[in-house]
Amino acid sequence: MLFFLLGAALVYQQTQSFAFTALADAPMDAIALIFVGLLTKGGIFVSGLWLPLTHSESETPVSAMLSGVVVKSGIYPLARFALMF
C-alpha cells in the first residue's frame, strides 16, 4: 500500500483534497501510483502473486477474512475509479 499512500499524498499536494473528484486534476504519476497500489491490494493478474501464498498459510477464518474483506478493499476503489473515467 506504499504506492497507494504515495499517490494519495501527491494528489493531496496538488489538489488539497482526498476526494475522488480530485483525481481529475491530479498528476498522471499520482494516478499511476494509486492504480498500481490498488491492483496489488486486489490481487489482480501479476501483482496478485502474494494472494495464493497468504491464503494457503493462514487459518480458515483468516483466509475467509482475507478473501472477503482485504481483497475487495482494493477492487471497490478500482471500480469507482473506472466509473469516473
Share of helix, binned: over 70%
Based on secondary structure, the structural category is mainly alpha
Q: How many helices does DSSP assign? A: 5
Mean pLDDT over the residues: 84
Q: What is the count of distinct domains?
A: 1
Q: SSE string, helix = H, strand = E?
A: HHHHH
Low-confidence stretches: none
Give the overall shape: elongated
Note the beta-strand portion. under 5%
Largest sheet composition: none
The span between the termini is 23 Å
Task: Explain what the structure shows.
It is built from 5 helices and no strands. It has one domain (2-84). The model has no long low-confidence stretch (mean pLDDT 84). The longest helix is centred in the middle third of the chain and has 15 residues, at 28-42. The chain is an all-alpha fold and 85 residues long.
Summed up, what is this model?
With 85 residues, the protein is mainly alpha-helical. Helix content is 72%, strand content 0%. The radius of gyration is 14 Å and the shape is elongated.
Secondary-structure topology with pairs:
Layout: H1 2-15, H2 28-42, H3 50-57, H4 60-70, H5 72-84
How would you describe this structure in keywords?
5 helices; about 80 residues; mainly alpha; about 0% strand
